[in-house]
Design a protein that fits this description.
The structure is a single chain. This protein is an alpha/beta fold. The chain is built from nine helices and nine strands. The chain has a seven-stranded mixed β-sheet with strand order 1-2-9-8-7-6-5, with helices on both faces. Strands 3-4 form a two-stranded antiparallel sheet. Strand 1 and strand 2 form a beta hairpin. Helix 1 packs across helix 3, helix 1 packs across helix 4 and helix 1 crosses helix 9. The relative contact order is 0.19. The model has no long low-confidence stretch (mean pLDDT 91).
Amino acid sequence: MLLPIRVHKRFLDLFKTVHIDSSPQQSTLNVHILNIESNQFIYSKLVEELRELIISYVHSNRRIEEFNKNYPSYSPKPFFEAIQKFRSYNSNEGELGELLLYAFLEAGLNAPKLLSKMELKTDSNDYIKGSDGVHLLETGDSFQLIFGESKLYADLLEGAREAFDSIVDFKANGMGYERGLIDTHVINEMVSEDGYEKIKSILLPSGNDGPDLDLSFGIFLGFELPVDSSILSMKNKEFREWVNESVKEHASRAVKTIQRKIKNNNLFGHEFHIYIVPFTNIETTRKQLIKDMLTIEGNL
């Protein structure tokens, strides 16, 4: 593999997988439910795992090599530099979804990060321009260049619609900029000149010499699962069954919306790798997760 996968498979152990009868055309649909304990999602374990991923998510492979060469393994510098790139949890609306998408694409799809977009931010209050991440997937003798899009909306259908509207806009107005960004900065992900030349041959195929390359999209959709006291008072087994069936119902409706978006916007020719995860009290939970995972205490 030309690029390292830095997200361990144990990330997937935080979730139960839900199987849906149908998937949108040209898509792989992955529906995951965070593990449950006493009728509560175990957010604390998710925070622990995300905190471990921050360094590899923000920093390029070349920067990580520099850290490994110049600092001891217990140095707080990589983590401290990484968290400076995040927006304040009070105003941070998108970066949790982007981080989760990164984790799922690496751990679940074996598609390593190709571009460290967070590292390119000059100010923590900047928003990432273009896609929400860029990954490279090897599929036999060909490759997929995956552009990320993440949405955390209370309404799953609204999130799905907004995600595909963003993809349509990205194709029309942002693709050229993004490809240029990759060409300029992908060298930062390579730790050897030989690796860089191989990546260039993939991204810029030439006649019979280069492998086939297609453009696809990775999509993370977080949504709110309404849970009131009557639901929380269920027996543990009944609660898990309710969550499972509710998520299935929401995801099945989303399939129809996604299929319609693909057809109406003529998005044929692209593959979509979709990840759906429910949350409780999504606005409060999102801020709390970001706040907890960026906490410096205990990481120095």
